[in-house]
Amino acid sequence: MSRPTHNLIPGLGLGVIGLYFVIPLVATGAFSLWEGGDKYGLAAYAALIHQPKLWQSLGLSVRLAIQTILVGLVVLVPAVFWLNLRVQRLRPLFDFLSVLPFVVPPIALVAGMTTLYTGPDWFVGTANYLVVPYVILALPYTYRALDVGMRALDLKTLTEASQSLGAGWMTLILRVVVPNLTTALIGAALLTIAIVMGEFTFANILLFNTFAVYIDYVGQTSATQAAALTLLSFLITWLAMLGVLFTGRGGRGQVQIGGAR
Amino acid sequence: MSYLQLDAVAKHYGSRTVLRDVSIDLKAGEFVSLLGPSGCGKTTLLRIVAGFDQPDSGRVVLEGRDISGLAPAKRQMGMVFQAYSLFPNMTAQENVQFGLRVRRQDAAAQQKRAREVLELVGLAEHAQKYPHQLSGGQQQRVALARALAISPALLLLDEPLSALDAKVRVQLRDEIRRIQQETGVTTLFVTHDQEEALSISDRVVVMHDGVLAQVGEPAAIYGEPANIFVARFVGAVAELPGVVADGSGGMVTVLGRQVAASRARGMAAGTRVYFLLRPETVRLGPPDAAGMLHGTVIARTFFGALTSLKVEITGGTDCVTAAMASGDAANIAIGSTVSVNWDPDSPRLLVA
């Protein structure tokens, strides 16, 4: 039996879109293997992995991503919880605040931030300082992910059920709310990782050698190594997404937004 | 001494008064239903007992102790909600153990208690299932088990059956009553379903517009409504305009005819009354002069064992409904003229 033609059209569309994504990646991959003339090999990769600065910058960005996730969630989980439970009328204000990072250009943010935030040397004198703007940059994504997750839960009933059973606020948030937000939390964390790994403006202006700054530096000195690094950063994102997929499938069934049917 | 005492509880939301000085006493082990239409204040009252809402004035006293200002978590009250309220990330057993875990009971005691209450609600074999693997009725049973696990001082049920389909609702309703009688837990049950309230309660509190319309045993609420709201809200009733004709003989003039109603005895002649007839007290027969009223059958509704026939009374637009065995009702055609009779003790009279 032949497939009806109308089924081919979406397939064709998907194929074209797929090519749009795949061709630049293949080209970048091919270029990263180019060693001059018609010679191809892994020289660019070999050179990269022997650069201590790569590992330092990658390590720094990963550490900053983790710190950003932690600070962002510690601030936003209770805030979005309270918004959904008790102060729904403030939703327009939250929505407005959450999109501010899109409106204020990073270059303006960094200027304002350096005059506003002062403090001990371990904070302002080190890359830890970057966590502040990164939390702000990740705010729209973290807020949205958490808000969607919490809206899907019947927070009022779950809160009252746990209170009537004797639970306090901390027990409620840690044992009831957070475990039911796994998908939302992972989504927020993944987006934060993507933002922090790729953020250039703040780190470059504040003179910290993060992964994005290092990619830029390598791009100016060795084009093939920059292509290899670009693929590497893609790989990190893909691994993170695979992680999300596997977390979503396995476990004890709690990774469904909304929880109950 | 009453076990739970609600003392002149009042609540306003802005300019809207939800509860006006409501006072109710519950005895230990009693099953009391708060019955009323939407917006009558029954759920607000339950939430005030649970501690989720604060009264503007009045007190909630449990075993002689004023708990009006106590946080919900400190009230030791088990509650089952209208919406499915199981924690989706926990199995049935973990849900049931939640309250015990919060109380830091040791693990063995938690498990033992969870098994006990899951067996009580008939779900022991589903202990390891997650809420999304359970039906609505099973979820509400687990919620009941979870509320009972903490050995609550008071069990609060906030329309727990309203999300369930009819058959499950009746099953679970009977089960709630059985479990309540087995455990002896004092229970406050909110419902808008009169059948539910009448069938499982020791006493029913009928609420209307934030006040108590009547408090009493189910039979009294149904049989002796204290006011026209209760008469209309609880059960079906035909409501005819009447005037007491003879207070000593127990006669009332209804639609131009003098009819017998023993409750008219002692009432002053000329008193305007609502003449109330429950469908099951109405008898239809062939038209004859001795009939108390006459009318024409205008509608028939089949309920299985029973059929109700709607009769328009001759000389007006007022109707009376008679509930009778379907076999008997089959012999009466729509459009036929019938006599409408009743036992003189049946009609309830409320001063209009």
From TrEMBL, chain A:
<feature type="transmembrane region" description="Helical">
    <location>
        <begin position="12"/>
        <end position="34"/>
    </location>
</feature>
<keyword id="KW-0812">Transmembrane</keyword>
<feature type="transmembrane region" description="Helical">
    <location>
        <begin position="122"/>
        <end position="143"/>
    </location>
</feature>
<dbReference type="GO" id="GO:0005886">
    <property type="term" value="C:plasma membrane"/>
</dbReference>
<dbReference type="InterPro" id="IPR035906">
    <property type="entry name" value="MetI-like_sf"/>
</dbReference>
<protein>
    <submittedName>
        <fullName>Putative spermidine/putrescine transport system permease protein</fullName>
    </submittedName>
</protein>
<dbReference type="Pfam" id="PF00528">
    <property type="entry name" value="BPD_transp_1"/>
</dbReference>
<keyword id="KW-1003">Cell membrane</keyword>
<feature type="transmembrane region" description="Helical">
    <location>
        <begin position="172"/>
        <end position="196"/>
    </location>
</feature>
<keyword id="KW-0997">Cell inner membrane</keyword>
<keyword id="KW-0472">Membrane</keyword>
<feature type="transmembrane region" description="Helical">
    <location>
        <begin position="64"/>
        <end position="84"/>
    </location>
</feature>
<feature type="domain" description="ABC transmembrane type-1">
    <location>
        <begin position="58"/>
        <end position="247"/>
    </location>
</feature>
<comment type="similarity">
    <text>Belongs to the binding-protein-dependent transport system permease family.</text>
</comment>
<keyword id="KW-1133">Transmembrane helix</keyword>
<feature type="transmembrane region" description="Helical">
    <location>
        <begin position="226"/>
        <end position="246"/>
    </location>
</feature>
<dbReference type="GO" id="GO:0055085">
    <property type="term" value="P:transmembrane transport"/>
</dbReference>
<keyword id="KW-0813">Transport</keyword>
<dbReference type="InterPro" id="IPR000515">
    <property type="entry name" value="MetI-like"/>
</dbReference>
<feature type="transmembrane region" description="Helical">
    <location>
        <begin position="96"/>
        <end position="116"/>
    </location>
</feature>
UniProtKB/TrEMBL annotation, chain B:
<dbReference type="InterPro" id="IPR003439">
    <property type="entry name" value="ABC_transporter-like_ATP-bd"/>
</dbReference>
<dbReference type="GO" id="GO:0043190">
    <property type="term" value="C:ATP-binding cassette (ABC) transporter complex"/>
</dbReference>
<dbReference type="InterPro" id="IPR027417">
    <property type="entry name" value="P-loop_NTPase"/>
</dbReference>
<dbReference type="InterPro" id="IPR017871">
    <property type="entry name" value="ABC_transporter-like_CS"/>
</dbReference>
<keyword id="KW-0813">Transport</keyword>
<dbReference type="GO" id="GO:0016887">
    <property type="term" value="F:ATP hydrolysis activity"/>
</dbReference>
<dbReference type="GO" id="GO:0022857">
    <property type="term" value="F:transmembrane transporter activity"/>
</dbReference>
<dbReference type="InterPro" id="IPR008995">
    <property type="entry name" value="Mo/tungstate-bd_C_term_dom"/>
</dbReference>
<dbReference type="InterPro" id="IPR003593">
    <property type="entry name" value="AAA+_ATPase"/>
</dbReference>
<dbReference type="GO" id="GO:0015697">
    <property type="term" value="P:quaternary ammonium group transport"/>
</dbReference>
<dbReference type="InterPro" id="IPR013611">
    <property type="entry name" value="Transp-assoc_OB_typ2"/>
</dbReference>
<dbReference type="InterPro" id="IPR050093">
    <property type="entry name" value="ABC_SmlMolc_Importer"/>
</dbReference>
<dbReference type="Pfam" id="PF08402">
    <property type="entry name" value="TOBE_2"/>
</dbReference>
<dbReference type="GO" id="GO:0005524">
    <property type="term" value="F:ATP binding"/>
</dbReference>
<keyword id="KW-0547">Nucleotide-binding</keyword>
<dbReference type="Pfam" id="PF00005">
    <property type="entry name" value="ABC_tran"/>
</dbReference>
<protein>
    <submittedName>
        <fullName>Putative spermidine/putrescine transport system ATP-binding protein</fullName>
    </submittedName>
</protein>
<feature type="domain" description="ABC transporter">
    <location>
        <begin position="4"/>
        <end position="234"/>
    </location>
</feature>
<keyword id="KW-0067">ATP-binding</keyword>
